[in-house]
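User: Can you predict the 3D structure of Phenylacetate-CoA oxygenase subunit PaaA? Sequence below.
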Amino acid sequence: PDTEAQAHFDALLAADERIEPRDWMPAKYRKTLVRQISQHAHSEIIGMQPEGAWISRAPSLKRKSILIAKVQDEAGHGLYLYSAAETLGTTREEMNEQLMSGKAKYSSIFNYPALTWADVGAIGWLVDGAAICNQVPLCRCSYGPYGRAMVRVCKEESFHQRQGWEILHALSNGTPEQKAMAQDAVNRYYGPALQMFGPPDADSPNSQQSMAWKIKRFSNDELRQRFVDMMVPQAEALGLTLPDPDLAWNEARGHYDYGDLDWDELKAVIAGNGPCNTQRMAHKIKAHEDGAWVREAAAAYARRHTSTDAT
Ligand code: FAQ
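Assistant: Sure. Here are the predicted C-alpha cells for Phenylacetate-CoA oxygenase subunit PaaA:
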C-alpha cells in the first residue's frame, strides 16, 4: 500500500476531518462503507412497504396526506443514500441487484407486518425513534457524503417520530378499544425496534473496526441503551406500557436496566425467516420489473438530449 496516502488518511481521521470521494482510502474502509450505506438505503426503500400499505386505509384525509409525505420522505432517503454509496464507485444497478438476489441485507424491522392503524403510529414512534438514535451520531461519520446525507435525513426522521407519537397519543386517549389497539402495537414493535441496533457488542463482528474508522461513533449496545432511556418517559407521557417486566431505573448506572432480547429471533429474521421477508422481496422485485419501461424511457430521453446538446 501507498504509505504516504495511508498516513494522510490516518491523519484526517485523527484530526476528525472528513474523508471525501477523491481521497485515497483503504479498500476495506471503502467496502465497509458500501456495505453499510447500501444496506441503509435498502432499508429505507423496503421500509416504505409496511406503512405504504396503510395509505389507502388512513382514517382521515389529514392522516392520509401526512402518511403519503412520510413514505415519500423514506423514498427520498433511499435515493439520497444510494447516491452517497455511488460516490464510492458502486453503481445503483449493482446495489439493486444485490438487494434483489438476497445478497445485501436490509433492516430486520421491515419484515414485520403492519396489522392495524396503530402499527403506523408504533412504527413512527419506535422505528423512527430508533433510527434517529442510530443516525444522529452518523452525521459525524468520517465519510463526508454519508455524514452530510444524515443531517437532512435526521431532520425528517424527527418529524416522522412526532407524527407516530401523535397517532398513538390520539389512540391512547380515545376509546378503550383504541387504547388497547395502541398498546398491542407497542407490544409487538418494541422488541424488534430494540433489535434494530444490531447484535450485542460481544457478537458484533464489524463494530470495532467501524468505530476505529469513525464510521460508527457508538457501539450497538450504547445506542440501544440511549434509546431505552429516551423511550421510558415518552411511554409514560403516552399512557402506554413498554412490554418489558425487567425495565427498571438503575440509580448507580444512571440508566434503565432492560430485559434480555430474543437474539435467535434477530438471527432468524436476518437469515430471511421473519414473518414478511418473502412478501417484502416479492413486492420489491415486482415493482422493479413493472418499472422497467420507466427506466427505458428515461434512458432514451437522456440519450436524445445528449445528442441534441452535441449538435
Ligand atoms: N437488521 O457487526 P454488526 C430506517 C447485520 S432505519 C438486519 O453489528 P454493523 C428509517 C449487519 O449488517 C433502519 N441486519 O454490523 C425508516 C452485519 O451483516 P453484514 C436502517 C442487521 O454494520 C424508518 C451483521 O448483522 N438503518 O430505515 C441488523 O457494524 C421507518 C453483524 O452486525 C441503518 O441501516 C438488523 N437490525 O452494525 C425507514 C443505519 N443488525 O453486513 C422507513 C446504518 C445487524 O456484515 C420507515 N447502519 N445486522 O453482512 C448501521 O448503523 C449499522 O449497519 C448497524 C449494524 C447498527 C445496523
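The chain has a mean pLDDT of 97. DSSP finds 13 helices and two strands in the chain.
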